[in-house]
User: Fold this.
Amino acid sequence: MRGGMEIRAAHRHRKATPARKARRCWAGTQTELGKAYVAKKNEPTERSCAVTREVLPVTDLLRFVLAPDNTVVVDVKGTLPGRGVWVTATRQMVEEAIKKRVFARGFKEQVKAEEGLADQVEKVLEQKALSALSISRKAGELITGFSKTEGALRTGRVLALLHATDASEDGIKKLAAIAASMNSNGGTHAVLRLFTSAQMDLALGRDNVIHAALLAGQAGRNCLNQAQKLARYRGPSDHSGLAGTKGAVAQD
Assistant:
């Protein structure tokens, strides 16, 4: 019994080495990967892209850090410990960074930056946008269904139209025409096609979600911001709300 107590006491009073501290810090912050990076007080609001050397706002960049096994991971919130390497927040730039071994130069050591890193980043941004979509619905700032979306457009509260990537062109064009008729002053709504109907179904807890409208409000604006970040990362094709899609399904 005494021996067991001595072992437990020794375990409690083990010296906190730098490596042990780093592991604890990493373990406590790795769950924050999916949250948005926000510059802390007195922290620079601009950084230099490691690929292009262009100075950009941190909101237009992605921060990457090294995991304990020297694997490069994205740090969306900016809380993971260690040196950070900043890259313009587009798939093209992340792939360029891998191809040109930018991470090895930035971290000044051998690193593991696999080709799948760009896909991993997209997955993080996609899940964050879908989570924001769910929060918008719970906050009452998301309308789903063709008829309800049409009605929301007529109220003037719509921030953006969201269409499933497998939505029919007919439904999209009808909603676009209604939106245009409501914007006689020349204004426009953001239009995004980022998720399949199945993805939207899962995020919103509904079936056959094809069309949706984000409404003005904090949750709606945050969702639009996250969706636009994902669209910018994927590339120009995801900015076009009227792009053709094969295998269209009926509007809801």
Observations:
- The two ends are 68 Å apart (CA to CA).
- The first strand starts at residue 46 and ends at 48.
- Confidence is low (pLDDT under 50) at residues 17-23, 27-35, 238-252.
- The domain at 15-114 is CATH 3.30.1230.10 (Hypothetical Cytosolic Protein; Chain: A;).
